[in-house]
């Protein structure tokens, strides 16, 4: 579908790539472990996290164009700015600058991942834009090169290039895959009405910690990594943890009722996803996940609940 970027003849280098549309699918992420360390001098917190990509997707289609444009449908339409502030546009510009090509494309986003939901939807879209434009423009970068550009766009973006289950350190941008025998984990994703701003949730966590009102930081992800290797949902359930949960609950106390409803429905564990307000629940298997999703939705404690599974691959041409 794509050809290498390179000179067509010696005098007139020409851009090669896909002539037809390139469609890229990208997953949402949850954090199985989110250990938030101290605030660093650069304003970021030191993280020890285990990312996990799940079967809730955004899709980005890239077509040839004479300028760079973005349209969208689905979650967040009418709310999300489609200008240079959008991570899709920023990613296209970053790739074009790196590869030395003009940043021209017609991009269309189909969004299922809720805005500001703690599922890294914006980062997922940035990762999708890097992969889609790389194929459209024929720039032929490796996943590692794309991940390096991704790190400049946001802490979660490199993970969404790779997908799967991975350990994230630094501010989350240093990603190494968790190698485990293939296991599917079954989740319920309970989407809230409205989002939470990630920087605000970090500020609330700092405030709770300064006031001595937060639990001890989780620290390393070693116990979670050991639990993953056992491939038993009950063992994984006991190891899930998120330092940001207390702060998300403090800003959005109604999430306690969502977590309770999941527990009442028989989920093995429930936790806030990233900075929230989405809550995720671990189920014993796929049919249990469907049943728990229906019960949580019937309890009226979230906007929507649906079953999902993971790990899923990162941003990929489909
Ligand atoms: P994270 O878990 O990485 O903190 P999140 O899931 O809480 O992220 P996102 O939906 O990724 O939140 O986006 C947060 C903010 O990023 C949005 O409120 C919006 O202002 C901005 N943004 C820019 N581009 C996008 C995009 N394509 N999709 C979603 N948000 C975007």
Could you tell me the number of beta strands?
A: 14
Number of helices: 10
Helix amount, in percent?
25-40%
CATH C-level category of the largest domain: Alpha Beta
Main sheet properties: 8 strands, mixed
% residues in beta strands: 25-35%
Q: What structural class should be given to the helix and strand makeup? A: alpha+beta
C-alpha Rg (nearest Å): 20 Å
Q: Helix and strand string, N-terminal first?
A: EEEEEHEHHHEEEHHHEHHEEHEE
Mean pLDDT: 94
Ligand set: adenosine-5'-triphosphate
Summarize the model shown.
Keywords: ATP-binding, Isoprene biosynthesis, Kinase, Nucleotide-binding, Transferase. This protein is α+β, with helices and mostly antiparallel strands and 318 residues long. The chain is built from 10 helices and 14 strands.
